[in-house]
């Protein structure tokens, strides 16, 4: 058994508890959280700072970890994708070594669960052995509607290679056909298949959807990809794609860098389980632009946080993402930001029975945050993994 106390305990089940006592069993399962003040007990580990649940990284691409510091910064999404396509091949040994290193680094940085995009099956073994709980999204890409069935069949084969939670998803509006989304919808009728899609990560995506023009067409020509089956939608990519998404699945919209207020309101028209995901450091790395965060409170949909991959980030650290969010969003209480970093991601991934908040019976992992700036996350805030 272990007993902890700190200046504040953020349970995310209610208000933060000042100098409360938190008791866990030897495996980290919460036995009790109380507001009781105990004057003297040598068995209590007392800390300066705040105790928070383990973090959830809602969006990552572990299999791109070997691309750390290999892709140029701030060149825009299309140039970024081109570079990744031409650089991502590497030896299996190098890819696995980089993934193992980052799996450990995420654990050490207080991350207890990850929603991870996979185009291959190379991460399957690591995920079975890791202390981190992974949900893998097998990602389908294909702009040519004629190939949709073939792409889904291939994804189903890849899915079978994973022993840990896994579902099939689509990459981004600019890399898929409506037919592929329809195939996905038919495929997951009647069972749980969490979906995530990169949304409006660059301005050119809406240009393509609204007017069937812009640099994506040249990009596909260069890659010899058939664009004949794509017609102009006269609306934003989000407005074109969302109506085709299944009703019964959790859907994570990732990045949202160019999502406008009208698009945010559009999401309210649907009774779908939609979550937003912000990956601010990746947005700065690729496009040097952040989403208009103030728009998203109008949707009342839960917000989660992701690191994206090391192709577009310096670290896979949720704390580093929180630093950018705290700095760029006015009047964001720490309790709210922590919900984005913990419980909302756990709910999206279906891990909230155990993770995401400090409650009796859960085993959420515990992080200590120190060097806060007036009670908020600051540039110098540090993390220590307690459990
Ligand atoms: Zn991504």
What does this structure look like?
There is one protein chain. This protein has about 375 residues and is an alpha/beta fold. The protein folds into 2 domains: about 1-55 and about 355-385, Urease, subunit C, domain 1, CATH 2.30.40; about 55-355, TIM Barrel (Alpha-Beta Barrel), CATH 3.20.20. The chain contains 13 helices and 15 strands. It has helices at about 75-85, 90-110, 125-130, 150-160, 180-185, 205-210, 215-220, 235-240, 260-265, 280-285, 320-330, 335-340, 345-350; strands at about 1-10, 15-20, 20-25, 30-35, 45-55, 55-60, 110-120, 135-140, 165-170, 195-200, 250-255, 275-280, 305, 365-370, 380-385. The strands form 3 sheets. Strands 1, 2, 3, 4, 5, 14 and 15 form a 7-stranded mixed β-sheet that branches. It has a 4-stranded parallel β-sheet with strand order 6-7-8-9, sandwiched between helices. Strands 10-11-12-13 form a 4-stranded parallel β-sheet. It is globular. The two termini are about 10 Å apart. Zinc ion (ZN) binds near residues 59, 61, 117, 198 and 254.
């Amino acid at each position: 058994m272990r007993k902890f106390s700190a200046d504040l305990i953020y349970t995310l089940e209610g208000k933060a508890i000042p100098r409360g006592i938190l008791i866990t069993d030897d495996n980290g399962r919460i036995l009790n959280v109380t507001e009781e003040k105990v004057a003297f007990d040598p068995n209590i580990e007392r800390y300066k700072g705040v105790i928070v649940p383990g973090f959830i990284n809602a969006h990552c691409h572990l299999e791109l970890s070997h691309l750390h510091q290999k892709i140029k910064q701030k060149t825009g999404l299309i140039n970024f994708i081109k570079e990744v396509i031409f650089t991502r091949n590497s030896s299996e040994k190098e890819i696995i070594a980089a993934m193992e290193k980052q799996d450990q680094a995420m654990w050490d940085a207080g991350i207890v669960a990850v929603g991870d995009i996979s185009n291959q099956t190379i991460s399957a073994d690591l995920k079975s052995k890791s202390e981190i709980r992974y949900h893998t999204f097998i990602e389908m890409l294909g702009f040519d509607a004629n190939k949709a069935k073939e792409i889904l069949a291939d994804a189903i084969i890849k899915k079978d290679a994973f022993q840990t939670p896994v579902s099939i998803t689509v990459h981004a509006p600019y890399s898929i056909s409506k037919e592929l989304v329809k195939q996905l919808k038919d495929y997951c009728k009647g069972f749980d298949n969490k979906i995530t899609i990169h949304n409006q990560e660059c301005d050119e995506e809406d240009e393509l959807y609204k007017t069937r023009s812009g640099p994506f067409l040249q990009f596909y020509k260069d890659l010899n990809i058939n664009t004949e089956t794509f017609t102009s939608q006269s609306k934003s990519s989000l407005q074109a794609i969302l109506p085709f998404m299944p009703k019964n699945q959790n859907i994570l919209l990732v990045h949202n860098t160019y999502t406008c207020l009208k698009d945010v309101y559009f999401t309210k028209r649907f009774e779908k389980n939609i979550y937003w995901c912000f990956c601010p450091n990746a947005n700065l790395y690729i496009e040097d632009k952040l989403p208009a965060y103030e728009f998203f409170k109008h949707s009342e949909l839960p917000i989660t946080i992701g690191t994206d991959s090391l192709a577009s980030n310096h670290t896979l650290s949720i704390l580093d993402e929180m630093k950018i969010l705290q700095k760029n969003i006015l009047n964001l209480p720490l309790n709210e930001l922590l919900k984005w970093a913990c419980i909302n991601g756990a709910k999206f991934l279906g891990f909230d029975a155990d993770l995401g908040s400090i409650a009796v019976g859960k085993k959420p992992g515990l992080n200590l945050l120190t060097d806060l700036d007036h009670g908020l996350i600051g540039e110098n805030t540090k993390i220590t993994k307690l459990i």
